[in-house]
Amino acid sequence: MFAEKKMLRDELSKELKKLISFDNSFPPGKTSDISNYIYKILSSYGFKVNLFENEKGLVNVVAEMGRGNPSVVFNTHIDTVGPGKTENWDHDPFVAKVDSKKLSGLGAVNCKGSGAVQIWLAKHIAKNGGPSKGKVSFTFVTDEENLGPNGTAYLREIGAIKPDILILGAPTNNDLIIEERGVLWIEIITKGKSAHAGEPHLGENAIVRMIRICNHLEREMSKKLKDRKIRGMKSTINIGKIEGGVNTNVVPNLCRLEIDRRLLPKEDKDEAFDEMETIFESCQASRENAYIKKIRGTNGFSGDKKYLVVQKISESYKEIFGNQIEFINSIGVSDGRYFSGDEIEIVCFGPGKDSEGHSANESIEIKSMVDSALILEKSISKILGYKKN
To answer: What is the C-alpha separation between 344 and 168, in angstroms, rounded?
Structure first.
């Protein structure tokens, strides 16, 4: 058993090092190179593999084996955030650094660690003859870090995947997430009139107008969101981006702002935007030369502990470790949100701690990947079985 685990540890580490070597950071989040790499691997193991590209360079992989129901779809994103200032890293972000316990590199935990696990799992299933019933699909997607339409959303839109069970490789530290908040991104633009800073009264300051609107939104939304909580999740608002002005000595004639709203599973994205728009319009500063619009948004999802996939992952976890699996909440959002209105089973499960992602010297515990692989392998054998068994 020790030798088998060491072999699995080495294989997962080798695969993750290779995945990290590809620069898929957003922007622009291009994935042509890494997708072609995965295509070659899974094709060689007998999977039917297709590449789907809605926007040039944003390439998604869908690898299938078996047919019929249940349709089990594994999903992980292979784009990453940017490395930021490389001087904050103690090594090249695209050259993995390995020690006795951890492997570090850009995307190690979010989410190329899950990518390595799912590639191993796909190989394992193929070596055992494929599923004895139903179909298994592995999807490696882009455009996740942008919350964009060209990754999982596109695969669902064109019918490239039709899951009964969707397992998302989020970094949950091998705990389970069965419900998740929705997300809504909103843009506000204010306009003014340029003038020399020495005579500001001759202009109209777009940034000052925006500040007044922000203060109004903060005050009014905090009242509404104060008691919106459920099972440890909160409904939140964050002003995440603001830009405006051309020079310090010029009255700015334009200001642009982006807001992030996280929605409880029971909240609706369209109703949430209408609520924000009403508050925006109640601000005196928004009465002229101010505009609000929805950038994008998806509702959250809420699952059930009685789901087949939840039961089998929970059983497998207990059989391996002897104790019950934990159910946790996510601070982020996964691509499961695109299926929130579908009658399917959705879970997030994967190696690594979410808090390690999006940071310099991002790292993942190698043991966490090994444990994840063993749990998922046992779970899929319970759900679909293997032809060779």
So the answer is: 13
Within 10 A of 180 (CB to CB), how many other CB atoms are there? 29
Report the chain's C-alpha Rg in angstroms: 23
Contact status, residue 369 vs residue 117, Cβ threshold 8 Å: yes
Q: Which amino acid is at 374?
A: L
Query: Is the confidence at residue 6, as pLDDT, over 90?
Result: no
Q: What is the pTM of this model?
A: 0.91
Calpha distance 36→51 (Å, rounded): 8
The DSSP call for residue 305 is T
DSSP 168-236: E---BTT-BB-EE-EEEEEEEEEE-B--BTTSGGGSB-HHHHHHHHHHHHHHHHHHHHTT-EETTEE-E
CA 214: distance to chain centroid? 28
DSSP 156: H
Spatial CA neighbour of 15 closest among 88, 94, 85, 118: 118
In this structure, are strands 25-26 and 229-230 parallel, antiparallel, or unpaired? Answer: unpaired
CA–CA separation, 3 and 325 (whole Å): 26
Q: Are 3 and 107 in contact (CB under 8 A)?
A: no
Q: What is the pLDDT of residues 175-191, one digit of tens each?
A: 999 999 999 999 999 99
Cα 200 from Cα 217, distance rounded (Å)? 26
For residue range 341-388, what is the model confidence (pLDDT) as tens digits?
Answer: 899 999 999 999 988 889 999 999 999 999 999 999 999 999 999 998
CB 49 within 8 A of CB 59: no
Half-sphere exposure of 162 (CA within 13 A, CB side): 7
HSE toward the beta carbon, residue 153, CA cutoff 13 A: 18
pLDDT in tens, 38-75: 999 999 999 999 999 999 999 999 999 999 999 999 99
Instruction: With residue 82 as reference, give the H or E element that holds it.
Output: none
Q: Which two three-digit tokens encode residue 7?
A: 């072999």
Other residues' Cβ atoms within 10 Å of the Cβ of residue 13: 18
Say how many C-beta atoms besides its own lie within 10 A of residue 220's C-beta: 17
CA separation, residue 62 to residues 79, 275, 288, 343 (Å): 15, 38, 48, 21
Q: Which two tokens stand for residue 140?
A: 């490696």
Residue from 70, 19, 83, 9 nearest 362 by CA: 83
